[in-house]
Amino acid sequence: MQMSIYLSCMSTKPPDPAFDEQELLPAIAQDADSGEVLMLAYVSQEALERTTETGLAHYYSRSRDELWQKGETSGNVQHVEEVRVDCDGDALLYLVDQDGGACHTGYESCFYRTLDGDVVADRLFDPDDVYE
Amino acid sequence: MQMSIYLSCMSTKPPDPAFDEQELLPAIAQDADSGEVLMLAYVSQEALERTTETGLAHYYSRSRDELWQKGETSGNVQHVEEVRVDCDGDALLYLVDQDGGACHTGYESCFYRTLDGDVVADRLFDPDDVYE
């Protein structure tokens, strides 16, 4: 029984990321070592291609309407060790080695607060020192 | 200097989840113990309220256009230990204690495959035994 499940797993064709259905897919960046969830951003097909080609995380900014490389300004780039795709192909997981903090506020993770406002992450840099 | 940064952290008002800008926000479910990213789904304001009221993860299905409680059919519910909100309030992180596997395919995580199709997670149940 175990073997049949195993074989069934290995023959499961991975879905292509569903860019035919959605222009942008959400991508979670997770620290490959600590497991901390660092941020959620969106990727276009081109952003994903640039990510896999360069090994550096690229996203697509919905507000600026442009492709961007994480850390282009701050230097806090993400070295992508692995990209995973979810069961139905409409979300991605980047396992990354994060230089500096992921959040533009200076925190290690963008998810540094609970709903109640408790701060639960470390602040690694002062954004005034990094962004003009 | 350290103290001023600390005080600055604590006075940072958390943003309300940005349901005024987006009806649905992406929510990442992460295993509170192992740190594994289990799934990404979407939440409405009502889904988030039901989650915080009951302690069980609720989401909003875009395909079925309805509120749903994770595990309602399979029994694989998520006990939510903490909800975090990201820096700009447009993504949520559920830290959960997951009963059974999170993925409807039987895997522990929906992110069980790399882009290249390698299976990188454990299969915990046979979906034929769980879903009719």
Notes on the structure:
The structure is a homodimer of 132-residue chains. Chain A is an alpha+beta fold and 132 residues long. Chain A has a single domain (15-130), classed as Phosphoribosyl-AMP cyclohydrolase (Ubiquitin-like (UB roll), Roll), CATH 3.10.20.810. The first copy, chain A, is built from three helices and seven strands, in the order αββαβββββα. The first copy, chain A, starts with a helix and ends with a helix. In chain A, 36% of the residues are buried. The A-B interface holds A 5-6, 9-10, 12-14, 17, 26, 28, 30, 34-37, 39-40, 52, 82-88, 91, 93, 103-105, 107, 110-117, 119-120, 123, 126 and B 5, 9-10, 12-14, 17, 26, 28, 30, 34-37, 39-40, 52, 82-88, 91, 93, 103-107, 110-117, 119-120, 123, 126. Strand 7 of chain A pairs antiparallel with strand 5 (78-85) of chain B, so a sheet runs across the interface.
Total domains of chain A, how many? Answer: 1
What is the CA-based Rg of chain A, rounded?
A: 17 Å
Could you state the order of secondary-structure elements of chain A as H and E?
HEEHEEEEEH
- The second-level CATH architecture of chain A is Roll
Q: What is the name of the CATH class of chain A?
A: Alpha Beta
